[in-house]
From TrEMBL:
Keywords, ordered alphabetically: Glycoprotein, Leucine-rich repeat, Membrane, Repeat, Signal, Transmembrane, Transmembrane helix
Highest classification ranks of the organism: Eukaryota, Viridiplantae, Streptophyta, Embryophyta, Tracheophyta
Principal place of residence: membrane
Membrane topology qualifier: Single-pass membrane protein
Protein name per its UniProtKB record: Leucine-rich repeat-containing N-terminal plant-type domain-containing protein
Domain Leucine-rich repeat-containing N-terminal plant-type: 22-60
Organism: Selaginella moellendorffii
Subcellular location: Membrane
InterPro entries: Leu-rich_rpt, LRR_dom_sf, LRR_N_plant-typ, Plant_RL_S/T_kinase
């Protein structure tokens, strides 16, 4: 009898499990019928096979649906509330970037049965609900550990939120970035955030102060992004967050003193705020801070002297402030690991310390637009073998340009608007060369940049501050430098990008993996250079910008320049060039700007190609030119 009962019970349980599995499949078939699936992504969903073998479905050991993975699919429509309520074993729901609408939870109730632990609804821009969408989901799904609602068009703010509402105490990751959420954050929101490790509220329209509860209750936080909002007042101390490693509060309206922080903090980005002062000791004892980015604030005084305990620092960017004083002679004793040193557009004075050579990991030095004076230390170039970017334009530097023979990794050299003398170094294997408005003399070297060097990777750190803000910033995206000119800051970089939406824009390592066999940009205008234009320029097939204007260059324009199919801007104005404009210029299919004015050119102006799109002023000041325009 006992054996018989066991067999009956087993049969009952087996039937129940089978019915449960069929119940799950019927729910998913109802979902399938409610969405638009033009590419038949869900074609495997049917009653003739096990639900656990359907595309984008995972099951538990008991063959119950536990996960749905429908991200990056061309689906659209509504996911009805029965998705959550009638799949009782569902733990993970991924429907990012699939065009689903906000009817997703149209009938969801806060007391519903929801065991979801991971929910990713990001990138569904048809969602247009208010923040009530967030509130209802978080109240109903109390077991959520990861909730990603980034990149939607939610709109609204927190003015309709329940005054007692708080995120769940099991939530570890919350991403609400890149929405249209606004108004003040209620203090109740973070009352039970003890498990929260990652918070991203960036790229919204939040205003007012940061709730104190965020920094007092969320003690497990490891990274925070508040960037690109309208938060104001003072940023609270970070002392109470012992595990915090990353904070990005850039592009807000914070003011006052840079907040104190704990030893474990690795990356601090407070760019584009109104911070005015740092403490006497910016870093705590035994600091692990690796990047400090304070670009575009209202800092003044001798900020560099407050960094004596920041000996783990690799990235320092103080650009666009009013920092004064000299660069400390012992800067490399204080910051021995420094790789990126950016402090352009400030009021630094004095000389460039030769001790910078001791920072042997330096990859980038950008100190343009200061009041630095004296010579460029020869050791700066000869000893820093990893240096890729050296920018000292718009200072008061004198003397000669040091030998660049050992600058094997140098990609960008910008020394414009100084009082440098002597000759242009003969061997400069770089992609960007800016020497305009100095007192250089002598011939133009036959080869300014040698071919065969591949531009594989250059890390620009936080140089986003100098990029045209309308261009957009992307992480993990390939870029190509088009032209760099510190005389036109908004055109510092022109970016080729397919577009992306970084959620935590902390230390964007902008890389460009673009194979280049020659310079892209050469500007040695406004000097005292003489001689002829080297015909070897025709070997620089990647050259896009060439400016030899305002010198004393003579001879004829080499016809070989016509083979530079990528040339977009060519300026040979205000020289002593003679002869005719080469007909090979008709081959310059990318040419958008040409300036040949104020020379001694003669003959007929070639007609056709891009030359017909140019302004007459391109040819003025050449008495013996005739014809078009």
């Amino acid at each position: 009898l006992n054996c018989y009962l066991l067999i009956v019970l087993f049969a009952i349980f087996a039937a129940a499990e089978a019915n449960s599995s069929k119940s799950d499949s019927s729910v998913l078939l109802r979902l399938k019928s409610s969405v638009h699936d033009p590419y038949k992504v869900l074609s495997s969903w049917g009653s003739n096979r096990s639900v656990c073998k359907w595309e984008g479905v995972s099951c538990s050991k008991k063959d119950r649906v536990s996960g749905l993975y429908l991200q990056n699919l061309t689906l659209s429509g509504s996911i009805l509330s029965f998705m959550i309520q009638e799949l009782p074993f569902l733990r993970q729901l991924h429907v990012s970037r699939s065009s689903f609408k906000d009817e997703l939870i149209a009938n969801t109730k806060s007391n519903m049965s929801c065991l979801l632990e991971w929910m990713d609804l990001s990138g569904n821009q048809n969602m247009s609900s208010s923040f009530n969408l967030v509130q209802e989901l978080l109240m109903g799904c109390k077991n959520l550990k990861v909730f990603n609602l980034s990149g939607n068009h939610l709109g609204g703010g927190f003015h309709h939120i329940d005054s007692k509402f708080s995120i769940g105490d099991k939530l570890e990751v919350l991403d609400l970035s890149d929405n249209k959420l606004g108004f003040n954050l209620p203090s109740s929101f973070f009352l039970r955030c003890r498990s929260l490790k990652s918070l991203d509220l960036s790229t919204n329209s939040f205003t007012g102060e940061i709730p104190e509860t965020l920094f007092r209750r969320c003690t497990a936080l490891e990274q925070i992004s508040l960037a690109h909002n309208n938060f104001s007042s003072y940023l609270p101390s970070l002392i109470s967050l012992p595990y915090l490693k990353i904070i990005d509060a850039s592009y807000n309206a914070f003011k006052g003193q840079v907040p104190a922080f704990r030893t474990n903090l690795r990356h601090l980005n407070l760019s584009s705020n109104s911070f005015t002062i740092t403490s006497n000791e910016t870093c705590p004892l035994t600091s692990k801070l690796e990047s400090l980015i304070l670009v575009n604030n209202e800092l003044n005084g001798r900020v560099l002297d407050t960094l004596k305990l920041c000996n783990a620092l690799k990235m320092l960017d103080l650009s666009f402030n009013s920092v004064t004083g000299q660069i400390p002679e012992d800067i490399c004793d204080i910051l021995p690991k420094l790789e990126y040193f950016l402090a352009w557009v400030n009021s630094l004075e004095g000389g460039i310390p030769s001790n910078l050579m001791a920072c042997n990991n330096l990859t980038m030095i950008i100190l343009s637009y200061n009041n630095l004076e004296g010579n460029i230390p020869a050791e700066l170039v000869s000893s820093l073998i990893k240096l890729q970017w050296l920018s000292l334009s718009n200072n008061k530097l004198i003397g000669e340009i040091p030998s660049l023979e050992n600058a094997k990794e140098m990609l960008v050299l910008q020394l414009s608007n100084n009082s440098l003398q002597g000759k242009v170094p003969s061997r400069m294997g770089m992609q960007v060369i800016e020497l305009r408005k100095n007192k250089l003399t002598g011939n133009i070297p036959p080869i300014l940049g040698f071919t065969g060097k591949t531009f594989v990777k250059a890390t620009l750190g936080s140089l986003k501050t100098a990029i045209d803000t309308e261009a957009g910033i992307c992480m993990d995206t390939t870029f190509a430098i088009q032209g760099i000119s510190l005389d036109k800051m908004k055109e510092l970089l022109k970016i080729k990008s397919g577009g992306c939406f970084p959620n935590v824009n902390l230390l964007p390592a902008l890389t460009y993996g673009y194979n280049i066999s020659s310079p892209l940009h050469i500007d040695i205008s406004h000097n005292n250079l003489y001689g002829e234009i080297p015909s070897q320029l025709s070997e620089m097939q990647d050259l896009q910008y060439l400016n030899f204007g305002h010198n004393d260059i003579s001879g004829v324009i080499p016809a070989a320049l016509g083979v530079l199919k990528n040339m977009a801007v060519l300026d040979l104005s205000h020289n002593n060039l003679q002869g005719e404009i080469p007909y090979t210029f008709l081959l310059l299919s990318s040419l958008s700007a040409l300036n040949l004015c104020c020379n001694n050119l003669s003959g007929i102006i070639p007609q056709g190609g891009q030359l017909t799109t140019l302004k007459p002023s391109s040819f003025e000041g050449n008495e013996y030119l005739c014809g078009f325009p």
